[in-house]
Write a structure and sequence with these properties.
Number of helices: 28
Number of strands: 4
Structural class: mainly alpha
Distance between the termini: 58 Å
Shape: flat
Helix content: 55-70%
Strand content: under 5%
């Protein structure tokens, strides 16, 4: 019945969630077993509701209402339920059969009750369950068409007062508030189903305003309020489709809503209303969106709406115009435009925009790296390697880092001109090596570049002449101890002394690594006795550092 394996669970969850699930196997309470699914409660930080599909192949699927699960991840609680299902695979069919038997028995019992007995039973439940009473009161008001009563009940359900301490709904109470707010949305949807879509339309808009007013006062870490907002947006759309409001009025409301603050909760998209708006309404949406954008060309909401509408209409020039009205100084907006034009099959224009991005950048040192990569790729793909080299050369000249040096080397080697380019690049780095630059916080880039080229002797010479960071000296010592062991040994001795004054496992690991390097140097120098004496003295001086002694023993030091 399970239809999946432990291997499939591990694959879909990942090693971390799978390992952490082991701690929750005793916290799983199976609540119901159905045809191909199982529901359970996992008692973690809070009781989490889990539903797992049992017949989805080797890797199952499922949902959990923990914060990690609500993001769409296969969490540790789902894994725990899956492992529980696997361990009880033989008993699950029996549980399913018992659940079916209980359900049939309950249905038969209810069907046999008289009308008076059923009413008495319902009244008893309403007395014991205030939440059920409120839900049924709301349904009754909807069925009567009592809009004032429905509105009052919706306002009551959206009120955070009963859940808020000091005016704020904490995480522990947010789920209960979200469940109550969801009841309000269900009541609004019920109005449409009952043939009163105009009332549902008006009430859904009012509910959006009420939710917006309280959302900053609710800890919505698990996204419950966002789900309510999405359902409310769907209720509004359903009401519009049923009542067919005036297209221009709806268009005006949609644009105002999307450009206002309320939309961050509902996520309404005017394009979803295209079948309701028709050609006239969509024309009004585009006109109002364009007017709002022209009045505020840098507004995020205005730009996003204009871009969405332009893309939906296949108007690439409009998309370009939106981006071009608010160009970022580092050229990243130029890159967006270039990619849009590429997608539209206009590569020549795309290349010109990308080149403009470099030319118009305020600071050549901080041009968007994606723009440089794009230009270099375009030139390389078209066989224009000299132009690609020029792009990388200019970028390196403006921002002299190891990464830009490596990128220049890659394209120059492809163009068979690296020797000349290298001489020029190293000359720039030598000029930097003697002075402070924004990129010298951990040593001259010159030394890293020479090491990356494999020119260790030149790197050692540069370090001697200009100075180097301890990180660089350590790399030099590690890579030259066979050829110049005495020089490398001096580096190791200098680096180890300050570390011996510190404590901590990370420090002890560095000390051990340095000692291993020193031992290799003494072996090349044939002075092993000198190294033995050094380690003996070090052990005597630091014998209380037990973790250090343990590491030295493990490495035979």
């Amino acid at each position: 019945m399970t239809g999946f394996t432990e291997r499939g669970l591990r694959a879909i969850a990942g090693p971390r969630s799978f390992a952490r699930a082991q701690d929750y196997l005793d916290a799983v309470t199976v609540t119901e077993v159905g045809d191909g699914w199982i529901t359970a409660t996992v008692h973690g930080t809070h009781p989490y509701a889990v539903e797992l599909s049992l017949d989805g192949g080797d890797a199952p699927s499922g949902e959990c209402d923990c914060p990690y699960g609500l993001e769409g991840n296969f969490c540790k609680h789902l894994v725990a339920v899956g492992l529980t299902a696997l361990s009880r695979a033989e008993s699950l069919p029996k549980q399913r059969t018992r659940a079916r038997t209980r359900a049939r028995g309950l249905d038969a019992w209810l069907a046999a009750l008289s009308r008076e007995d059923l009413l008495a039973l319902v009244r008893e439940q309403l007395h014991e369950d205030p939440q059920l009473r409120r839900r049924l009161e709301l349904r009754a008001a909807s069925a009567r068409g009592d809009l004032d009563e429905v509105r009052a009940r919706v306002r009551e359900l959206l009120d955070i007062g009963p859940f808020a301490q000091y005016g704020y709904v904490e995480y522990a109470d947010a789920r209960a508030y979200g469940d109550q707010a969801a009841q309000a949305v269900s009541a609004i949807s019920a109005l449409t189903s009952a043939g009163r879509p105009a009332d549902a339309l008006a009430l859904s808009r009012e509910a959006m305003r009420l939710l917006h007013a309280v959302q900053e006062s609710v800890d919505d870490s698990d996204g419950c309020l966002g789900e309510v907002g999405a359902d409310l947006a769907q209720a509004h759309l359903d009401a519009c489709r049923a009542t067919r409001p005036d297209p221009e009025e709806l268009a005006s409301w949609l644009v105002e809503h999307v450009l206002g603050d309320v939309d961050d909760l509902t996520g309404i998209d005017p394009l979803d209303y295209e079948d309701v708006l028709g050609a006239r309404g969509m024309a009004t949406v585009r006109r109002l969106a364009a007017e709002a954008w022209r009045a505020n060309r840098t507004g995020w909401a205005e730009k996003y709406l204009m871009e969405r509408l332009a893309k939906a209409g296949g108007d690439v020039d409009a998309v370009v115009a939106v981006h071009a009205a608010d160009l970022v100084p580092d050229g990243s907006t130029h890159l967006l435009i270039a990619r849009e034009l590429d997608t539209a099959g206009r590569p020549d224009e795309a290349l010109r925009w990308a080149e403009r991005g470099v030319e118009e950048a305020e600071d050549p040192a901080f041009v968007a790296t994606g723009l440089i990569d794009y230009l270099c790729e375009r030139h390389s793909r078209a066989g224009r390697l000299p132009q690609a080299v020029a792009v990388r050369r200019d970028h390196f000249a403006a921002r002299r880092t190891l990464t830009t040096y490596q990128q220049l080397r890659t394209v120059a080697q492809a163009a068979d001109c690296w020797n000349a380019e290298r001489d020029t690049a190293l000359a720039l780095l030598r000029a930097d090596a003697g002075q402070r630059t924004p990129y010298r916080y951990d040593g001259p880039v010159l030394i890293d570049a020479l090491l990356d080229d494999g020119d260790v002797d030149a790197a050692w010479q540069a370090a001697t002449e200009t100075g180097a960071h301890d990180r660089q000296w350590l790399t030099l010592a590690d890579r030259t101890r066979a050829g110049r062991p005495a020089d490398a040994l001096r580096v190791y001795l200098r680096l180890i002394e300050p570390l011996l004054k510190e404590t901590g496992n990370a420090v002890y690991e560095q000390v051990t690594s340095l000692l291993l390097g020193m031992r290799a140097c003494h072996q090349h120098l044939r002075t092993q006795d000198e190294f033995t004496a050094y380690v003996t003295a070090l052990r005597a001086a630091h014998k209380r550092k037990r973790n250090l002694m343990r590491l030295l023993d493990e490495h035979g030091l």
